[in-house]
Description:
This protein is α/β, with parallel strands linked by helices.
Amino acid sequence: MMVPRTVLLLCCCLLAFLPLGPLAVEAFVGGYGINYGRIANNIPSPDKVVELLRRAKIRNVKIYDADHSVLDAFKGSGINLVIAIPNELVKDMAANTSRSMDWLNQNVQPYLPQTRIVGITVGNEVLGGQDQSLYQPLVDAVKNVYDGLKRLHLESKIELFTPHSEAVFATSYPPSACVFKEELMAYMKPLLDFFAMIGSPFYVNAYPFLAYISDPEHIDINYALFKPNKGIVDPNTSLHYDNMFDAQIDAAYAALHAAGYDDMEVRVAETGWASSGDQNEAGASSENARTYNFNLRKRLFLRTGTPLKPKRPVKAYIFALFNENQKPGAGSERHYGLFLPDGRISYDIGVSGLLPSSASSSMLFIKKVRAGGWILHYWATVLLCIFILLGP
């Protein structure tokens, strides 16, 4: 007996919305994320922050600890969350595997899958930092935490990495000449060997702002802000750079190439521009912060690569969600926030249009379907429906 075409069509439409088994977790959806620091006494509660992030359509968030109030607030939000083992715990994690298991059992396992923990950072800017006693423990801590993830069968679902500052490089200009500092290679090489084995990217904190304030007389601020400028040409590769952000990423790629890690992806763990700072921090202003973050956002949403790696889209976490009024250090450290404590935006960078404002409701739906990990299944079924509908 022939099955009526309308019945077949109805079945296909239902199939379009059935996932094909468990969905793989993506550590970074799209190209844009944000750092959520909390060294402040005037910022909203984590629950309010989640509401803000959802309104702003920010889907990737990185924090600097594993605070349980934050992990609870992110339950059911659908936001990808990277948590952290701070520097003060690195030696503890390196000492023995049982400590790393305890940490994972307390801060990761109880929150999955409701809280989408997709990454763990081990330390922040350890190599090249002032506390050299952390250098070797960092390598051991990373390995112990990964062993713990394997025991919990989470190694394929949670990305493990450590962000580096520009201090790990001996030079970064021109980009092609960048290499790691020789004195760090005893620690950097085993770290990169391990990350290459488990498929982790190389994360760098890239701040054109910091480069500019270090030499404002010789660095064109337009080059640092993504504004029209003549740019630079790398004499070794003849590649042209019209912004410092891309040059800093390609410098990291050059250092990885020189060290023998051509296949490792570079991602940006932090980047931003301060809206205020000390008297000697040239360029720290609301207008420059707005310009940098607005142009950076546009650049990331193009989903394009760099001059050296044009087919590898850049991914970056912006620093930061809020100004942190209790953060120590230079004045600029307390003025990177995109949002004010009451949730209003500090300056207009088009946050309300993180998805293009001209996008139709159907295109927004497609983006959500793609984020769910079953876009191919969806479109294959839709095409089958069309074939049945138009067939003889």
